[in-house]
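debug: dumping io for the single-chain case to check the tokenizer round-trip. Nothing else runs in this session.
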Amino acid sequence: MNRQQGIAACLVVAALLVAVRTPGVRPSRRLRGLGDRARSAEDRRPRWWPDRVRLGAGLAGVAVAVLLGGAPGCLAGVVAALVADRLLRRIESPAARDRRLREAADLPLAADLLAAALRAGAPVDRSVLAVADALGGPLADRLHRVGRTLLLGGQPDEAWSHLGAVAGADRLVTAALRTSRSGAALAGALTRVADDLRADRSTAAEAAARRAGVLIVLPLGLCFLPAFILAGLVPVIVAVLGDVL
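debug: decoded output
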């Protein structure tokens, strides 16, 4: 490897470290103000992530330009930077992934708490706000928006649409909209939704465990089969061919 290739390799490694590495973030205090409660989870996404992506794509483009050199290298570096920027933007940021997983994990509990509040006689808007206060986390931000919209007289479709991005929330939203039109009790539907969500999570966990078992055994099989062929079948085939020939 010459010096030019070494520089390009270092730039590629630096681009990967810049784009993938997540800086440590200390947990922020839970804000109690009304305006802070109304903020959605998207409004608090990490602002450093686009800068990291652009910097990583730029380093990748410089690496290509250094490796090829000259005017063709500069042109290829620009193209590589644009392609790398587009590909890196498709990667979900660690903070967004953590928020998405926390929202999905808290959804069954939120449905149970909301059902309990409704059974206690509280209206839907107050129940949603109470559950958001008790729950905390990124899902609480969305529930605050739902409750505030209902409290201010917004339509149920508009209010419950704030949960549309949460995985599995479509069942809860469908149940809430159906009961708002028919006048049926929402508590029983929420209990069934919570049970279904927990069952789905259990099924997904079992499927992931099975896949992990297969992936763990796969390297062993890849090592065992060639050894079995070389140590068991090849000597037999060589001995038979030696007797025949």
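debug: round-trip ok. Confidence is low (pLDDT under 50) at residues 22-46.
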